[in-house]
Amino acid sequence: MPTTFLHRINYSLLVVFIVLLAACEQPKERKLPYYNTSDFTPHFDKEVPDNFHRIRPFNLIAHTGEAFTEKNMDGKICVANFFFTTCPGICPRMTINMKVLQDTFLIDKNIQLISHSVTPDKDSVARLQAFAKSKKVDARKWLLLTGSKEEIYNLGRKFYFVEEDLGEKRDADIFLHTENFVLTDKKRRIRGIYNGLSLPAMQNLIADIRALEKE
């Protein structure tokens, strides 16, 4: 049996497995906290102040060649991660799990997936386009972003907190490499962080996305 055919079967089973687990184990009422610091201390307030931490304004470019700013996140539940196209280590597994999210929420207009390149000097729009095609990235749901390295690293470390406590003390001279996925709500506030290599974490992320849609 051809390897590609076996890979498609395995991927399909993975999607079904994660989605079914998320559906079966989601509690009746799931309340998500808010986070405003890199130590991810949860705040279970019913609502938070207008000046509560949120992803700041930015200006990047999607693999489609179009500008992508914070305005594209407004009014949408977003999942963000940080990767690079030539990564041989954790990125392939993260890409598989982002693809699971893409296929799970493909027709849901409330959800946006975004992957920021941490090597934007190498990951041009053309390279991201080629990568997107090879990984079956659907631009209706999932966008790969490039742009200023300083912008991307500042967003990742100081606003998404993807390296948690360590990230706030580092700048763009130190390579950003993390397996974390970050969930933000329709006002760009952080509502969850997840290990992008873990199937149980993906199950929780899917359940949390659905809980956010009910808020």
Describe it.
With 215 residues, the chain is of the alpha/beta class. Helices cover 36% and strands 17% of the residues. Helix 1 packs across helix 2 (91-104) and helix 1 (3-25) crosses helix 6. It is built from six helices and seven strands; from the N terminus they run H-E-E-E-H-E-H-E-H-H-E-E-H. The protein has a seven-stranded mixed sheet with strand order 2-1-5-4-3-6-7, with helices on both faces. The protein has one domain: Glutaredoxin (3-Layer(aba) Sandwich).
Number of helices, where a helix is a run of at least 4 consecutive DSSP H or I residues: 6
* Gross CATH architecture: 3-Layer(aba) Sandwich
Q: What would you report as the Rg, rounded to the nearest angstrom?
A: 17 Å
Mean pLDDT across the residues is 88
Report low-confidence residues grouped into runs of 5 or more: none
Distance between the termini: 46 Å
Shape: globular
Helix content: 25-40%
CATH superfamily label: Glutaredoxin
Q: Which structural class best describes the helix and strand composition?
A: alpha/beta
Strand segment tally: 7
> What is the level 1 CATH name?
Alpha Beta
Q: How much of the residues is beta strand, in percent?
A: 15-25%
Summarize the structure.
With 215 residues, the protein is of the alpha/beta class. The chain contains 6 helices and 7 strands, in the order αβββαβαβααββα. It has one domain: Glutaredoxin (3-Layer(aba) Sandwich).
